[in-house]
Amino acid sequence: MSKTLATKGPVSERMGSIRRVLWIVLFLNLGVAAAKYFYGVASGSASMQADGIHSVFDSAGNVVGLVGIALAARPADEGHPYGHAKFETYASLVIGVLLLLAAFEVGSSAVGKLASGVYTAEVTPVSFVVMAGTLAVNLGVTTYERRCAKRLKSEVLGADANHTLSDALVSIGVIIGLVAVALGFPMADPVMALVVTVAILATAYDVFKHALATLSDRARIPEEDVRAAAVAVPGVRDAHRIRTRGTEGEVYADLHVLVDPSMTVGEAHALADEVEDAVRARFPNVADTLVHIEPDDGHTE
């Protein structure tokens, strides 16, 4: 006995909302990347160029997210009876790989400058204007995307929000490096680029950790919370063997409920429907609930 969300409705609306957020963030990231990278090239700042490259990978991550959401939004079919929601998780993994590539690009450039001893950064008031402006945009994007990720329970938006937050932290590091260069410490520019590299690697780790939680079928809802929803239904004496898995936005649950042994098949079926509705009412991100009816005759495992 199970109840599944229709393809059209909450699921499709959620995917559409995620898609809109990704488009908005994509255009903002492209603007930020262009401002930082091209002024970094013009001023010879390695850390500003590194920060610009990081923002480019933010944009690439948005594109990956859009592709992943397009695939995840497809309805269940014969080959994928549980739907395609995990494509959103796969998109998060690709974003993690892009972060690793960005870390390599930024780190190798910084090491090259430190090894050669050639420091070319020129600091002007415009440098600080560019970095402060792009930092404000990044912080705004991060706040907006993180709120949407929590509301929509989206792994892609969560990964991308962390990515953008790391970009903001990197920008703060770049500003510190530019101040040091202006005070007569030119080596600070590539050193801060290395700090950028560490920040990107830390972000990549966080993205992989969340994606692997889904792919390893980690429990998504505490067992006691699901049990509380089930036993609140009149006629349910207890519930056990409770399991949940899936993405944060599309959870699959199954549980066994104990009922009066004298209950008819029709009554048991109706009760199972009530349990499914109760679980869905308490946890709107549950896409499918499978309820197994057991007689409460003292012979349960």
Give the secondary structure arrangement, pairings included.
Blueprint (H helix, E strand, L loop, with lengths): L1 E3 L2 H37 L2 H27 L13 H31 L8 H28 L2 H28 L5 H28 L7 H9 L6 E9 L4 E9 L5 H18 L3 E10 L6
Parallel strand pairs: 3-4
Antiparallel strand pairs: 1-4, 2-3
Helix pairs in contact: 1-2, 1-4, 2-3, 2-5, 2-6, 3-5, 3-6, 4-5, 5-6, 7-8
Core attributes:
membrane; alpha+beta; Alpha-lytic protease prodomain-like; 4-stranded mixed beta sheet; Alpha-Beta Plaits; 2 domains; 4 strands; elongated; 301 residues
What do these coordinates show?
InterPro entries: Cation_efflux (IPR002524), Cation_efflux_CTD (IPR027470), Cation_efflux_CTD_sf (IPR036837), Cation_efflux_TM (IPR058533), Cation_efflux_TMD_sf (IPR027469), CDF_Transporter (IPR050291). It is a multi-pass membrane protein. The protein is an alpha+beta fold. The protein has 2 domains: 214 residues, Alpha-lytic protease prodomain-like; 73 residues, Cation efflux protein, cytoplasmic domain (Alpha-Beta Plaits). Helix content is 68%, strand content 10%. The protein is built from 8 helices and 4 strands. A 4-stranded mixed beta sheet has the order 1-4-3-2, with helices on one face. The longest helix has 37 residues. It is elongated.
